[in-house]
Q: What sequence folds into this?
């Protein structure tokens, strides 16, 4: 029984449907295969570096002086404003000088009397010399006159010393001048108060002066760091108490170590209680930015110069406690390399171990790359590749 023409066409279309469906699946699978992700690669940067160790410390004044009187008396005048800068020799305080003037006049009068007694003893001895030769007086009488002259000479010397002391008390010690230049604190005693002077422990504190330029920065570092400096030779200059070791410093509100100074002291013993040793650096402070007691961070050379490889810090990934970078091999396959990190230099990171100078490191697109998968590498700074004939224009 023959089929009609419409029936034969329907049967042919039904036979072609599976074939058409298979062609559609092939096209769908071809479109679904993603291209290799595009990443930016670059070779490590080579530089000569010196590792820097960082420590926290405080500024201290080179000279810190407590102003105390050498003589006792009532405070007569204050010659400065609290907190001002003073120069060495500036007049700060005046103690009532009238009692010292009276004492000075008395000591001068006593000196004049002693000199008169000495003149009389000298003339009496001269007369006795002739009399003893003529046997008019005895040897004992002559010896008494000689002794009187020596006593008079001693009295003159003692009174001269007392006059010099009285002159110091009146002319110098009753006026207190700045022993060093720097910034003075606030006055501790007001005019009219009794000031206790002398060399004992109960003298009156009048003010304090701290020098500002130059200024010192004190910090401590641990015993392990000290040994590392000595064994590696990195801190030989510092550990050998050489004052030429350069250091850099930044304050708490600063981003970079912009202030340059030099080491000027390393202590001679490690503190037993803390296991640290004290170091000190000196900085210029003409702008008076640094103040005693202020915190800061100092960078100290921690290694000899060496050739280092650096990669962008963003190219370093973390896998639990290990650090890694992705490199692209000759077949454009991403490979994982575990590395040992060094110090940060700006946006770059020193790679101590695990990387060679010829490696092509993925510096951009790290999240798109996978270990063992192909990638489309583009050298950093190179123009993007032009679309090929099969690329679809957007």
A:
């Amino acid at each position: 029984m023959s089929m009609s023409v419409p029936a034969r066409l329907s049967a042919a279309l039904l036979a072609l449907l599976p074939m058409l469906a298979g062609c559609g699946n092939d096209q769908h699978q071809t479109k679904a295969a993603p291209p290799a992700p595009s990443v930016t690669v670059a070779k490590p940067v080579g530089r000569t570096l010196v590792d820097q160790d960082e420590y926290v410390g405080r500024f201290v004044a080179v000279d810190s002086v407590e102003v105390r009187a050498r003589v006792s008396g009532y405070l007569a005048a204050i010659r400065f404003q609290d907190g001002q800068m003073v120069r060495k020799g500036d007049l700060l305080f005046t103690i009532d000088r009238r009692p010292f003037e009276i004492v000075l006049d008395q000591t001068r009068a006593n000196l004049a009397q002693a000199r008169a007694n000495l003149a009389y003893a000298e003339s009496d001895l001269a007369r006795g010399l002739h009399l003893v030769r003529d046997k008019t007086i005895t040897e004992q009488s002559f010896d008494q006159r000689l002794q009187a002259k020596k006593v008079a000479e001693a009295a003159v010397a003692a009174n001269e010393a007392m006059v010099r002391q009285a002159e110091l008390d009146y002319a110098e010690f009753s006026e207190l001048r700045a022993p060093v230049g720097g910034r003075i604190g606030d006055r501790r005693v007001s005019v009219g108060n009794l000031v206790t002077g002398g060399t004992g422990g109960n003298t009156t504190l009048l003010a304090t002066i701290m020098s500002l330029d130059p200024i010192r920065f004190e910090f401590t570092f641990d015993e392990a760091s000290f040994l590392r400096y000595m064994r590696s030779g990195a801190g030989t200059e510092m550990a050998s108490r050489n004052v030429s070791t350069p250091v850099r410093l930044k304050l708490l509100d600063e981003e970079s170590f912009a202030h340059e100074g030099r080491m000027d002291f390393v202590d001679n013993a490690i503190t037993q209680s803390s296991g640290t040793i004290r170091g000190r650096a000196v900085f210029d402070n003409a702008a008076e930015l640094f103040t005693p007691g202020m915190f800061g961070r100092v960078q100290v050379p921690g290694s000899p110069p060496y050739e280092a490889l650096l990669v962008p810090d963003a190219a370093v990934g973390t896998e639990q406690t290990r650090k890694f970078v992705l490199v692209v091999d000759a077949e454009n396959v991403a490979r994982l390399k575990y590395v040992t990190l060094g110090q940060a230099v700006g946006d770059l990171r020193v790679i101590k171990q695990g990387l060679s100078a010829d490696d092509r490191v993925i510096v951009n697109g790290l999240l798109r790359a996978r270990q063992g998968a192909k990638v489309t590498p583009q050298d950093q700074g190179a123009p993007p590749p032009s679309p090929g004939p099969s690329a679809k224009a957007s």
Observations:
- The first strand starts at residue 38 and ends at 42.
- The longest helix spans residues 98-133.
- DSSP finds five helices and 23 strands in the chain.
- Residues 206 and 238 are 39 Å apart (CA to CA).
